[in-house]
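Need a sequence for this fold. Nothing fancy.
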């Protein structure tokens, strides 16, 4: 049992339970409860500090249960509660605590113990890890049921032992910290539910009054030398907030009262509605319209606040409550604890704090006293750009001058409108805060853009050189823009990418440089260049079009599994190796220039606008975040530039974080990861980021070898007494192919295109219930939605095979779908309604597949159409084509509202609802058991009977 040191009563019963759980740690461990630490001019509560053998752990305990979602800044814990990320809080406290420990125990220097303190959040009563888009969750969120094992696993990683004398010194200095103040159970008639993170002299409590929810803001009068002056100040500020009630856009405040002589309490009635943080980000064009109207409502409310002389200064998604929808939306602001009224702060000490709010204007990092109307508008713009771009505020604020290409996410909307939306965000994030704008005018701009998207404000068709039809804009930079086009003279060529330079004078040198860089390079991980035109043309560089998402768009999924990550590393190192063989530098390796081509299962390095020969002098180019430290002083681009940039890209993909703080690239922070293989790989990646160039891998091939070695895990040791003959089981590679796609793309994981997939196919209710109904013409249209790889295409192939077996005649079949006729009835399928094909846009392809389903009613002789489609894509398509597919839209809406019924002509099948396992006993084997039975069929593994290590491996099943 661990040594337990208690510094006071527990604030909640869940904290008491957490202490009981932590007491089960080994005897040598020490757990210190309920302490306070001075941090950044304030004091921070610390629930638990745990001293292990190699690490010190800082834990913030939460009693939250149920399904928890959110981002790296805001968590949604249900019931309208959207607190700030507790991980951010513990990380914020961890830095000064680590400094305090090193100061008190000099032997624990940064050089001797580079990683000393590990901060985390303990969810004592939660049953599952929160679904949070934050890579820190994996190693910084602990469940009560597993925290003891999890802490010991992290502490067992290979690093220097603290030593008993240092551990006792830590115990002493932590014991000497002030005891945490107890959370009151009641303040007057208000029952306290829990304490919420306060700031600089303001405690915030969730409370109830006669079972009705309330928020109590408790101001500490002792922080001022003159208590009567502080009391007068808070009363005057209450009156100013009370006057805001007339605006209708703030939470209702009740009369303040004194709680002893030391505190002033302001009760607040939480507004009705939904916190913005609890609303999902937009996915479809219709949802984008709703989001922009929501932004308009927020800026309109901000206008009313500013007109009263109030600057909020703490706008976050949790501080905004949305009432209503569409044009009737209204934004209510809360959390005025940081507000400034008539140039005075409610909390004077706030101006001394370091910046921790990711939505706050960077100017506020030096002092919150510099806040004004423009900094509030910056916060709102950052909040909505995060939601519209699906990029975290932390990433966005790194460089607000270079915003994400919103058109890649919203290409179904007008390019012109999306560009104007991007420019509006840019103006709000980059303008001089001394140049004030009217928030109401800004809100009207958002509303106007929403109206144009809703009205499908599309420009006329555009052609380049009177030949190349522009499908859409792929990207736009300072020097050039790139279009996806089709060649009207040769339609069979499909699509290609065309770069157009803004300045004709740039065409000759820049275009030729890009062409020369790639003309002799042959790699499937690099795009092919077909043609370079002269300056008088409109299309300057013709390139292979690489479809797919950029790594920048996939960043929210970091950290990746090691298998998925290795494909990324392997492909990009192959690309760099090819460039190094031709003595070329790319000079702009970054996530936005890496595309995952799902059709060919490859990662491709694109955009060679800055490429040059390795011996060529040039100025700095690319993104500063990915420059090696020596680049700022080098006369020529460092030869290791691309490898350094790729090491940083790969590190973020593997760990979900950067290995340094801010721009200090010479002070790397080694990670603490629970998976030892991932830990070793991360350490190799850190060697690629070493400030000393000589310590980095000297080639892409060497880098690949080092990473491959780090990934090797030796499970058994073989004693070789005689030469052994290799035993190759081809079934193994086929099984592995299920987990990591082969170089041929979707083979073995899309449709039934190989004997292996056909042999291992497991019939489901789709085959036993839906397929017979389809053959009887019962549903006219079937929409299959779900996640990638869940069997939509395989089922469509089963339908096709059934039609063929019954003698159906093929009309057409290609990678986008098929059409057959059986007994005079037409059957059609669409494998993916989001993909274009052979010159047809995704909309055009889907319209062709739905031919015969048009109009206000579905006729009896209508064809049977089967479509694999995303939920949001279906809603968006039918909304835009309601005049064409009116009856279909009506049927879909009825099915969504009341569920799919057998008698209806349109069925919606959501495969995300399908269960592969069962939680109750049943005689029938589950899908998982049936699949496993196929994969482990002894016949497939008979060759392994003669394997020399079979006995040794029996314990590793």
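Here you go.
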């Amino acid at each position: 049992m661990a040594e337990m040191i208690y510094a006071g009563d527990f604030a909640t019963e869940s904290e008491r339970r957490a202490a009981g759980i932590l007491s089960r740690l080994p005897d040598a461990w020490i757990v210190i409860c309920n302490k306070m630490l001075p941090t950044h001019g304030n004091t921070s509560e610390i629930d638990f500090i745990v001293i292990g053998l190699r690490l010190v752990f800082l834990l913030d305990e939460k009693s939250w249960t149920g399904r928890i979602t959110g981002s790296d800044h805001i968590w949604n814990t249900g019931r309208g509660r959207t607190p700030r990320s507790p991980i951010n809080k513990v990380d914020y406290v961890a830095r000064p605590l680590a400094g305090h420990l090193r100061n008190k125990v000099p032997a624990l220097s940064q050089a001797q113990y580079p990683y000393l303190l590990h901060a985390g959040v303990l969810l004592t009563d939660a049953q599952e890890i929160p679904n949070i888009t934050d890579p820190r969750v994996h190693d910084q969120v602990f469940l009560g049921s597993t925290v003891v094992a999890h802490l010991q696993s992290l502490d067992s990683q290979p690093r220097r032992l603290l030593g008993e004398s240092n551990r006792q010194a830590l115990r002493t200095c932590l014991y000497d910290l002030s005891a945490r103040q107890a959370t009151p159970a009641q303040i007057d008639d208000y029952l306290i539910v829990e304490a919420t993170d306060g700031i600089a002299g303001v405690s915030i409590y969730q409370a109830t009054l006669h079972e009705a929810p309330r928020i109590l803001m408790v101001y500490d009068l002792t922080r001022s030398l003159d208590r009567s002056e502080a009391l007068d100040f808070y009363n005057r500020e209450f009156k100013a907030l009370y006057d805001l009630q007339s605006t209708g856009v703030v939470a209702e405040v009740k009369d303040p009262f004194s709680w002893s002589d030391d505190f002033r309490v302001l009760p607040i009635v939480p507004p009705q509605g939904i916190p913005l943080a609890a609303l999902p980000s937009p996915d479809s064009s219709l949802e984008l319209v709703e989001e922009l109207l929501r932004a308009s409502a927020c800026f309109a409310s901000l206008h009313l606040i500013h007109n009263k002389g109030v600057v909020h200064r703490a706008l976050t998604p949790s501080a905004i409550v949305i009432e209503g929808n569409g044009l009737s939306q209204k934004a209510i602001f809360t959390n005025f604890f940081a507000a400034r009224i008539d140039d005075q702060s409610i909390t004077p000490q706030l101006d001394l704090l370091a910046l921790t709010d990711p939505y706050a204007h960077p100017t506020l990092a030096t002092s919150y006293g510099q806040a004004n109307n423009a900094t509030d508008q910056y916060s709102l713009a950052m909040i909505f750009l995060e939601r519209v771009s699906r990029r975290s505020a932390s990433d966005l604020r790194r460089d607000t001058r270079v915003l994400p290409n919103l058109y890649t996410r919203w290409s179904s909307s007008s390019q012109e409108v999306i560009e104007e939306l991007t420019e509006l965000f840019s103006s709000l994030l980059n303008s001089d805060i001394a140049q004030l704008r009217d928030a109401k005018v800004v809100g009207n701009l958002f509303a106007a853009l929403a109206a144009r998207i809703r009205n499908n404000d599309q420009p006329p068709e555009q052609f380049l050189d009177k030949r190349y039809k522009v499908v859409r804009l792929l990207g736009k930079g300072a020097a050039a823009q790139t279009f996806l086009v089709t060649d009207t003279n040769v339609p069979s060529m499909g699509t290609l990418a065309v770069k157009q330079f803004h300045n004709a004078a740039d065409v000759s040198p820049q275009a030729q440089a890009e062409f020369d860089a790639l003309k002799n390079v042959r790699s499937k991980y690099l795009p092919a260049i077909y043609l370079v035109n002269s300056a008088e043309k409109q299309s300057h560089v013709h390139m292979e079009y690489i479809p797919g998402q950029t790594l920048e768009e996939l960043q929210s999924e970091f950290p990746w599994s090691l298998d998925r990550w290795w494909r990324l590393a392997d492909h990009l190192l192959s690309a760099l190796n090819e460039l190094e063989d031709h003595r070329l530098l790319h000079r702009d390796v970054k996530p936005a220039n890496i595309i995952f081509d799902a059709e060919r299962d490859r990662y491709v390095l694109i955009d060679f606008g800055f490429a040059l020969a390795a011996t060529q002098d040039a100025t700095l180019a690319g993104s500063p975040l990915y420059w090696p430290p020596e680049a700022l002083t080098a006369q020529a681009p460092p030869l290791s530039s691309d490898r350094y940039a790729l090491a940083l890209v790969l590190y973020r993909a593997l760990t979900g974080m950067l290995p340094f703080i801010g721009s200090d690239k010479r002070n790397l922070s080694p990670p603490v990861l629970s998976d030892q293989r991932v830990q070793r790989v991360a350490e190799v990646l850190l060697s690629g980021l070493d400030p000393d160039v000589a310590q980095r891998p000297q080639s892409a091939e060497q880098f690949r070898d080092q990473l491959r070695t780090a990934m090797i895990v030796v499970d058994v040791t073989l004693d070789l007494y005689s030469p052994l003959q290799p035993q190759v089981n081809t079934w193994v590679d086929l099984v592995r192919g299920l987990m990591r796609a082969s170089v041929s793309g979707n083979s073995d994981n899309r449709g039934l295109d190989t004997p292996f997939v056909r042999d291992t196919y497991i019939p489901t209710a789709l085959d036993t219930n839906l397929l017979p109904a389809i053959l009887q013409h019962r549903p006219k249209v079937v929409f299959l939605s779900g996640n990638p790889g869940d069997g939509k295409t395989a089922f469509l192939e089963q339908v096709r095979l059934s039609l063929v077996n019954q003698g159906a005649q093929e009309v057409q079949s290609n990678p986008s779908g098929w059409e057959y006729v059986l007994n005079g009835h037409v059957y059609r399928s669409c494998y993916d309604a989001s993909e274009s094909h052979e010159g047809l846009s995704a909309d055009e392809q889907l319209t062709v597949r739905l031919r015969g389903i048009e109009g206000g009613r579905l006729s009896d002789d209508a064809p049977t159409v089967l479509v694999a489609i995303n939920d949001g894509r279906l809603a968006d398509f039918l909304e835009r084509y309601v005049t064409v597919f009116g009856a279909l839209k009506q049927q879909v809406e009825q099915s969504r509202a009341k569920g799919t019924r057998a008698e209806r002509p349109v069925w919606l099948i959501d495969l995300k609802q399908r269960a592969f396992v069962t939680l109750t006993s049943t005689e029938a084997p589950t899908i998982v058991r049936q699949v496993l039975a196929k994969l482990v069929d002894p016949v497939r593994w008979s060759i392994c009977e003669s394997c020399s290590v079979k006995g040794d491996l029996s314990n590793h099943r």
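For context: The chain is about 30% helix and 20% strand.
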